[in-house]
């Protein structure tokens, strides 16, 4: 998708990388020259090559997070030339190829920057704040055991499709990194929207949106200013329509929570 | 959290407050402009209208307090959210890059701030007379109505009544080129504020979607352009000499 040319001409680049030894250590940009790169190698392979050279020289290799290298795990959090996941649309860092750059380019690589994503080392950030938001309500409390019969709960096709759009979120954090305010609204909206569109998610729908938003706020993410940088940077191109849906859900849940009667019974009936 | 706590204490709640107060303020500025455009008619019109509003008495104060509360909540939410947003970034990016955020959306804090300064000047100018006192309505000869001023068919201000000459105050106020230009710039920036604000409020209230987002964006742009042109017309016409000061007001000033 990023391919702009089918060139086989090798390229040389200057890599300007954020180096930071640890969470509390001061960080700075360091330049590395890298020559003779195959344009069809991936961005992460280029980092591997640079790291091999650093190791041979006895220097500390650049720490970067990666896992699947095929755009499905959301681990590869890098900001390339100011854009999370680099050039291209709808791809993760691991799906960026060196042919997206030109010979002689200076490529600046830095971590995702957000107070809620503290830097662990170099390009690696701690995104466990997302896990805590998920744990606050990003699931359906269900009977464990054998899978239910698939057609027991009918789901209209348009709802299933929309829920699937939201479910493609890989929790990478690019939305936070791209947002001018480091807001996590797109991620949370994708989770809330995904479960809120399905019949299985209805019972806990109000509780979920209230709990996930309140955890999101407590984790120190910023607030949405509706500039839609998030959805433009999202490797899954998740629509900011889900943010509007979450805003509506949140307002409804807040009003209902204020007026819904609660049971006065103190016993459990047993 | 209870209802009030959720609205005032959460990220989304504050955005909703900002959107709702924004709607109230938009309603006000539109009504205000429509009323002001009567300056292009006989002085009876604007003067009768102003007197009618003053005669509302306690009702006028209900509206004023509502607007003051809306402005305060709007600015409070904007400030609280902005401070959190600045904190949330942590360390700044080495390379700053914008993918698609519009200029209007990125300038909200600055356009909002200029509007606030303008609002204070505007109140001092036409409501309290703290600035440009020589042309304040209280220092001008009153206007004698030549015809009835009617609202919804009811003659609320009768012919022959003497009322403050607001029409002359407006025209004389804009004789000062610097003041007229300041008004034009300020309403231009307010229009820019609303260009993002209108689109944004639909999203904050959960009413925007991809299906009609293009229509919404265009409608907001047309609205803001019309709003700007309407506002430009009044000081613009005075600067261009199309709205001359009435002879008796000009002589009263001497
Ligand atoms: C008086 C000083 C003002 C300041 C400091 C101010 C500031 C702001 C800020 C920072 C935002 C948030 C931008 C964003 O989230 O993208 C905003 C939104 C908005 N403002 Fe203002 N503003 C002011 C006056 C006004 C006035 C007079 C109006 C209406 C005529 C208005 C209408 C709106 C609307 C409709 C929004 C969108 C709400 C939303 O994001 O959902 N503002 N303002
Ligand atoms: S919404 Fe998109 S950018 Fe945000 S975490 Fe999910 S996949 Fe990543
Ligand atoms: S490494 Fe898994 S998405 Fe990039």
Folded structure, characterized:
The complex is a heterodimer of chains A (270) and B (254). Chain A has eight helices and seven strands; from the N terminus they run ββαβββββααααααα. Chain A has 270 residues and is of the alpha+beta class. Chain A has two domains: 2-121, Beta-grasp domain (Ubiquitin-like (UB roll), Roll), CATH 3.10.20.30; 127-259, Orthogonal Bundle (Fumarate Reductase Iron-sulfur Protein, Chain B, domain 2), CATH 1.10.1060. In chain A, the strands form two sheets. A five-stranded mixed β-sheet of chain A has the order 2-1-5-3-4. In chain A, strands 6-7 form a two-stranded antiparallel sheet. In chain A, strand 6 and strand 7 form a beta hairpin. The radius of gyration of chain A is 22 Å and the shape is elongated. The mean pLDDT of chain A is 94. Chain B has 254 residues and is mainly alpha-helical. Chain B has one domain (3-90, 102-253): 3 helical TM bundles of succinate and fumarate reductases (Up-down Bundle). In chain B, strands 1-4 form a two-stranded antiparallel ribbon. In chain B, a hairpin with a 2-residue loop joins strand 2 and strand 3. In chain B, helix 2 crosses helix 9 and helix 8 packs antiparallel against helix 9 (213-239). Chain B is elongated, with a radius of gyration of 21 Å. The chains are: A alpha+beta (270), B mainly alpha (254). At the A-B interface, helix 6, helix 7 and helix 8 of A face helix 1, helix 2, helix 4 and helix 8 of B. Protoporphyrin IX containing FE binds at residues 15, 18-19, 22, 25-26, 29, 71, 74-75, 78, 82, 105, 108-109, 112-113, 115-116, 119, 193, 196-198, 200-201, 204 of chain B.
């Amino acid at each position: 998708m990023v391919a702009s040319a089918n060139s086989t001409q090798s390229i040389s680049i200057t890599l300007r990388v954020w180096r930071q030894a640890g969470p509390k250590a001061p960080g700075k940009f360091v330049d590395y020259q890298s020559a003779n790169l195959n344009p069809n190698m991936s961005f992460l392979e280029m980092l591997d090559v640079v790291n091999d050279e650093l190791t041979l020289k006895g220097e500390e290799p650049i720490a970067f997070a990666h896992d699947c290298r095929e755009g499905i795990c959301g681990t590869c959090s890098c900001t390339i030339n100011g854009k999370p996941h680099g050039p291209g649309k709808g791809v993760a860092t691991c799906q960026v190829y060196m042919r997206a750059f030109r010979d002689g380019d200076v490529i600046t690589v830095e971590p995702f920057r957000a107070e809620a994503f503290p830097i662990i080392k170099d390009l690696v950030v701690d995104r466990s704040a997302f896990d805590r938001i998920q744990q606050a309500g990003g699931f359906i409390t269900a009977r464990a055991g054998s899978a239910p019969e698939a057609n027991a709960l009918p789901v209209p096709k348009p709802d299933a499709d929309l829920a699937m759009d939201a479910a493609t979120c890989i929790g990478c954090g690019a939305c936070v990194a791209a947002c001018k305010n480091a807001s996590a609204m797109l991620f949370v909206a994708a989770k809330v929207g995904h479960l809120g569109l399905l019949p299985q998610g209805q019972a806990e729908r109000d509780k979920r949106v209230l709990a996930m938003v309140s955890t999101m706020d407590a984790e120190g993410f910023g607030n949405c200013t509706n500039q839609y940088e998030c959805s433009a940077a999202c490797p899954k191109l998740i629509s900011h329509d889900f943010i509007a849906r979450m805003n509506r859900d949140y307002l409804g849940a807040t009003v209902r929570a204020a007026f819904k009667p609660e049971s006065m019974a103190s016993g459990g009936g047993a | 959290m209870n209802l009030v706590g959720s609205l005032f204490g959460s990220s989304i709640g504050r955005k909703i407050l900002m959107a709702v107060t924004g709607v109230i303020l938009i309603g006000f500025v539109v009504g205000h402009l429509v009323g002001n455009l009567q300056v292009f008619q006989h002085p009876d019109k604007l003067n009768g209208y102003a007197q009618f509003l003053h005669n509302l008495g306690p009702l006028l104060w209900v509206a004023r307090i509502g607007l003051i509360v809306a402005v305060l909540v709007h600015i409070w939410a904007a400030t609280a959210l902005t401070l959190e947003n600045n904190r949330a970034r942590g360390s700044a990016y080495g390379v700053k890059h914008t993918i698609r955020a519009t200029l209007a959306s990125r300038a909200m804090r600055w356009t909002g701030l200029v509007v606030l300064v303008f609002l204070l000047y505007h109140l001092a100018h036409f409501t309290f007379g703290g600035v440009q006192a020589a042309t304040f309505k209280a220092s001008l000869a009153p206007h004698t109505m030549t015809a009835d001023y009617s609202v919804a068919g009811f003659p609320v201000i009768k012919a022959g009544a003497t009322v403050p000459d607001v029409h002359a105050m407006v025209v004389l106020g804009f004789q000062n080129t610097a003041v007229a230009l300041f008004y034009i710039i300020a309403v231009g920036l307010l229009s820019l504020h609303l260009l993002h604000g209108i689109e944004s409020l639909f999203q904050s209230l959960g009413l925007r979607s991809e299906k009609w987002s293009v229509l919404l964006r265009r409608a907001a742009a047309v609205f803001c352009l019309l709003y700007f042109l309407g506002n430009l017309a009044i000081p613009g016409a005075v600067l261009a000499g199309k709205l001359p000061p009435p002879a008796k007001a000009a002589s009263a000033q001497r």
